[in-house]
Amino acid sequence: MSVESLRKILGSRKIALPPDEMAVIKDYVRRKYNVSCKVKLEREAFILSVPGSGLAATLQLEKQLLIKKCNLGGKKLVIRNSS
Q1: Any domain includes 26
Q2: Assigned domain for 36 exists
Q3: What pLDDT was estimated at residue 17?
Q4: Are strands 38-42 and 45-50 parallel, antiparallel or unpaired?
Q5: In Å, what is the CA distance from 13 to each residue of 7, 17, 71?
Q6: What are phi and psi of 5, to 5 degrees?
Q7: Does 35 map to a domain?
Q8: Residue 60 sits in a domain of what CATH number?
Q9: Domains held by the chain: number
């Protein structure tokens, strides 16, 4: 198989890009709490993993505000402790 045929095959593939909401959630947490986090999409829910149970509890209290500010629409937000 030549390099050109590989380029042709890979070039025609559609690559799924992460939803914009994931970047917005990460940016919100980074700006407000100065902490990096991980966000993934599973079925119809965003899974937000943050370091530390204290931050996870604080975000849980702010969950509705976070959903509104990040424009999540009908998708659920699940907050988890990643440590």
Answers
A1: yes
A2: yes
A3: 55
A4: antiparallel
A5: 10, 12, 29
A6: -70, -35
A7: yes
A8: 3.30.70
A9: 1
Q: Which domain holds residue 72?
A: 17-81
* Helix intervals (H) in 1-83: 3-12, 20-33, 53-61, 63-69
For residue 47, the surrounding DSSP H or E stretch is strand 45-50
CA quadruple 21, 23, 25, 31: dihedral sign: negative
Closest CA to 48 of 19, 83, 77: 77
List per-residue pLDDT tens for the chain, 83 residues long: 577 776 777 676 666 555 688 899 999 999 999 999 999 988 889 999 999 999 999 999 999 999 888 888 788 999 999 87
pLDDT of 69 reads 87
Asked whether the beta carbons of 66 and 27 are under 8 A apart, the reply is no
- Measured distance CA(82)–CA(37) in Å, rounded: 9
Q: What is the pTM of this model?
A: 0.75
- Does residue 27 lie within any of the structural domains? yes
